[in-house]
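debug: dumping io for the single-chain case to check the tokenizer round-trip. Nothing else runs in this session.
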Amino acid sequence: MPDQLLYLYGGDRPWVSDIWVTSDDRVRGGASHSYLTVDSPDHARFHGHLDISTLGGAGFASQHSLGELHLNLKEYDGVVVSIRGPDKADGKRYAVTLKNDLLPPRDDGREKSTVSWEAEFVADKPGDVKLTWDAFKPTYRGREKKDAPELDLKDVKRIGLMMRSFFGKQEGDFELHLFSIAAWKHVSFAEDHGDEEEEDLKSDAVVVKRATEKNAWWKCLLCGLV
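debug: decoded output
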């Protein structure tokens, strides 16, 4: 059965470039850079260049949502990233990031680090990439943080797209073509057809009742003849 979708970007919520913010490793002295370019309401590109030489093998380039979102995604099963095709997948490893906590910036304007919940995926072909909530792991500055509290799905304040070196494993130009990012929920057959099945059962009951009444009438008629 088709999934229930809550489009966050793309789909029935057209892409808009000015609600995305750049956050690259240049804030830490790196040389990576990223962009979120909107080619049309249903086509966006997360692209740029990941440099790992400046920071000795480390590096990141990312885009994240503007301000605080306060999304309640508790009733959903995860996030689905819809990659455009047919030849728009670069085979590199990306991550979707979620945040519950945002802190005021430092005096110099730099953003303070907080725990991010990251789910990785490889853009090896066009299509939908489903990420369940258990795929999101808590990280702090790129490293797993095992003592982090649970992700609060009732108040997701930020969504982001991340390109990281994964400690020297990838670098260079990257380009991810996107149709949408959405929250998804699996809809079972029973849920999808519950009302329809209920109406069918009611119709069947009416047919049975009419057949029973008809049989009873014939029985009374035959008894009278006898």
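debug: round-trip ok. The first helix runs from residue 189 to 225.
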